[in-house]
Write a structure and sequence with these properties.
By secondary structure, the protein is an alpha+beta fold. The protein has one domain: HIT family, subunit A (2-Layer Sandwich). The protein is 28% helix and 21% strand. The chain is built from four helices and five strands; from the N terminus they run H-E-E-E-H-H-E-H-E. Strands 1-2-3-5-4 form a five-stranded antiparallel sheet, with helices on one face. It starts with 7 loop residues before the first helix and ends in a 9-residue tail after the last strand. The structure holds adenosine monophosphate (AMP). The site of adenosine monophosphate has 11 residues, from loops.
Amino acid sequence: MIYDKNNIFAKILRKEIPCKKIFENEYVLSFYDINAQKKIHALVIPKGEYIDLDDFNQKASDEEIVALSKAITEVSKILDISTDTGKGYRALTNLGEHGGQEVPHLHFHLFGGEKIGKMVE
Ligand code: AMP
């Protein structure tokens, strides 16, 4: 599959459309989901052009992979939902058609601020 440069998160990264930013560094951007499913619903995305987690793990540099993983914890601390400073959260990423992925740019959802419930409804 070829990366679609016109997906909505690519447009956010190019600042063509706005986002409610939570965190940013050289490799990663985090912002609030526009359609929150829980009290806190954040997204964490790599700045590089990766379709999903499989694409990322096969093509990204070690620096990018470490940065994305660490950013999830960084964002959880900023939002006070980390297991250090808060009550925990769920981090998940959807892959492809069966995974229910809608935006074809890798993103982790961080759900928190309340009990998240069952793994799969
Ligand atoms: P997924 O189904 O895993 O691909 O999730 C895509 C997510 O992107 C959904 O939770 C949407 O609400 C969210 N989303 C779509 N457009 C935007 C946007 N412009 N800003 C923030 N979140 C968005």
